[in-house]
What we know:
Layout: E1 17-18, H1 26-34, E2 40-41, E3 46-47, E4 50-51, E5 68-72, E6 74-75, H2 86-90, E7 94-95, H3 98-110, E8 115-119, H4 134-142, E9 150-153, H5 158-161, H6 165-172, E10 180-182, H7 190-196, H8 202-215, E11 220-227, H9 234-247, E12 251-256, H10 273-288, E13 300-308, E14 314-318, E15 324-328, E16 337-345, E17 350-357
Parallel strand pairs: 1-2, 5-8, 8-9, 10-11, 11-12, 15-17
Antiparallel strand pairs: 3-4, 6-7, 13-14, 13-16, 14-15, 16-17
Amino acid sequence: GINAEYGDTKFIAGLSVVGTHQIDRVVEVVEETLKGNSVRLFGQKRIGKRKLGGASLHLPKIRKNPLIEIIAINTGCLNQCTYCKTKHARGELGSYPIDEIVQRGEQCFAEGVREVWMTSEDTGAYGRDIGVSLPELLYRFVDIIPEGCMLRLGMTNPPYILDHLEDMAVILSHPRVYSFLHLPIQAASDSVLYEMRREYTCEEFCHVVDFLRKKVPGITIATDIICGFPTETEEDFNETLSLIEHYKFPSLFINQFFPRPGTPAARMKRIPADQVKKRTKQANTIFQSQFPYNDKIGEVQTVLVTELASDGVHYVGHNKFYDQVLVPKKERYLGNTLNVKITEAGKHFMKCCVLDEGSKMSVPSSYSNPNQLYVTRECIGSETYVST
């Protein structure tokens, strides 16, 4: 993206630009631009010296999918990863107050939303700047989730979830919270993690996964790896391959190292491109050989239907573990829970027959033509992200 706050501005000379914390002032910027002025708002919102989460959560919103609400609970991060520019763009951690997040949740459920995604650059770090914690927020939030609606928690880095494992196991077992967690490992070699400044070890990552799999049976753990970090040796990478083979993650995001300008890793000597591609292919081969849903055939599951599938002929439902289940494309299914029997399993999805319909709620009027509904994202696990 544009890193205008840090001087990379030559190609946007004369243009008006709105920073990530100033989106609530976009109308003001447009009006001034129409008058012939060039406006640049890059400042962060603060109270005294403390950074705020950003623009108000109560701004008017037109949802791409009226059944799904995305709530940012904090912006920025506490990390100093050597390959990443997130902190350059987003700054230090800034968390929204619990009351503001809960009020936003109440409002969106009242508007017909069936699924809330709590997101940020690192959800696990939530509240450390304002004296609260992620479990405190989640315990408050689950109390306002209506029956038939679900909460999905976004990505968290391992260091910040370690302090709350018992609470997180309780929350992820809640009937209206998906038993799903996106927990990036990036590399299974401690020496590579040290050079990345990831602030955890492979053993700590494995402890989180093992603990949650024991306490929350069936939980889906998604993770990321980076192939070809500059200091990664063949031995280092083999440790990552062993991790993939051992845990058989249903969702794995495979990325090639890219030297982002201005980051410490960009100044490191790079591994030859052919070696990086080879490692990427090795990781992808192992991942594609694993079929996590084959043993689900014949199971009866409950799914919440919220999206049109990418094939255009099914709707997408998610079960308690946020697995993708394709259901027949019938308009009345949208926004409702269904009891289904799994009849077929692919690498990234399951198919089913509908046994009966569960809870029914009114679908927002913007669904008057369901053929105009498009998926707001590719379902987690439905793609393997491989750069070539």
